[in-house]
Amino acid sequence: MNRRRFLANAGKGALALAAMPSMRALGANDRIRIGLIGAGDRGMQDLDDALKQPNIQCVAVADTYSRRRDLAKAKVPGIDTYDDPMRLLERNDIDAVINATPMHLHAKYFIAAIQANKDLYSEKTMTWNIPQAVACRKAAQASKQVIQIGVQHESSGGLADAREWIEAGYPGKVTMVESWISRNTPRGRGQWVRPVPDDCTLENVNWKLFLDGRPEPIFDANKYINWRLFWEFSGGNVTENMVHQNAWITSALTLELPIAAVMTGGVFSEKDGRQVPDTFNVTLEYPELIVVWQSTFSNSHFGLGQRFLGSNGTIENLDFRASSFYPEKANDPGVAAMQGANPGVNHMANWFECIRSRSKATNAPIEVGYRTAIAGHMANLSYRRKQRVTLEEAMAAPGSAWM
Length: 403
Ligand SMILES: NC(=O)c1ccc[n+]([C@@H]2O[C@H](COP(=O)([O-])OP(=O)(O)OC[C@H]3O[C@@H](n4cnc5c(N)ncnc54)[C@H](O)[C@@H]3O)[C@@H](O)[C@H]2O)c1
Fold this sequence. Notes:
CATH architecture of the largest domain: 3-Layer(aba) Sandwich
Strand order of the largest sheet: 14-13-12-11-7-10-9-8-15
Bound molecules: nicotinamide-adenine-dinucleotide
Shape: globular
CATH superfamily of the largest domain: NAD(P)-binding Rossmann-like Domain
Low-confidence stretches: 1-22
Oligomer: single chain
Number of helices: 13
Number of domains: 2
Largest sheet: 9 strands, mixed
Radius of gyration: 21 Å
């Protein structure tokens, strides 16, 4: 979808919602009434997480698949359910919304939700392309709504450890970050592939709302359930997992946008008709620093991690647990290795706390969503074009450039 069409569509929703009364004023101890858009795997986890926090009530769920609406109702009896999220957003008794739809729909409901004066928890990656990231950021900056992007490791203790050491100057000048995710699945069962339930039929699914204008006239249950495998709806593991690590790295080192990106690889291990690559590496260039990230789906030995290689020492973080620091003896002989001990906070709880205090400074605010979306889309653009892509080239590319 090009930028003009996306903005026109988002605008239509906004027009319908423009007459909404503004959100009720919440006191510090008032109950926050939430709605969930997209009650799939992640949406239900987010809902569980939200309901564990004090004084939170879920009043409505929107999902285009009847099975998911039924499951949500079974979890929270008494809620209202809708297939069209715009109906949920029309309600003025909902304070805040969780958006856990497939990635290609994030921007549409992001903009509609904040224009309907709802505070917003929006799953990563914030948008499906760069023009949408620009539009969401503009809308967020113009709004008073409290936004948390679903990159939950921004609230982790390991990030707080790294920030403290960087602020104190321990690693010295960091010129290289190496980062990776390594996963595996039993032979014959591809990473991310989900079985398609028998009731996933045109009768039970609003296919048109899922497509949101994509030219797919024939219902395809596999695409509906396994949308992650296709460029039309997903950015592959760049937007599934690199986004988490890129957020962590850019926040720790206070990086802005990459100046260029290179990504190479292919579909080497998961020969199941998927379009997005399973084995690849990405190099993101920043001024005097490169961030390398690699992804594999056929070997899980080294798990997930990131290492900041500095002139005076190394910060290592494995699996988003506590971070470690190792001094470079050549430059800092007197410094001992350190183990981080910051506890971190619950990301959902941080959002609710900011809603109550009306602070826009959540742990993963719009800027984190914007930077990580753009870095990811630059990488995918490089992969699709088979060339290094600069920030200027990426910002000028049409929204459908990597489809
Ligand atoms: N933060 C994390 O760690 C994390 C983990 C997993 C997934 N996610 C993100 O959460 C999002 C959802 O992933 P998932 O695995 O739950 O996918 P999913 O397919 O299980 O769930 C998506 C849900 O959205 C519904 N849906 C589709 N079109 C819709 C529409 N127009 N309006 C309303 N509902 C619609 C589907 O019926 C489905 O129930 C993705 O963006 C994913 O990247 C984040």
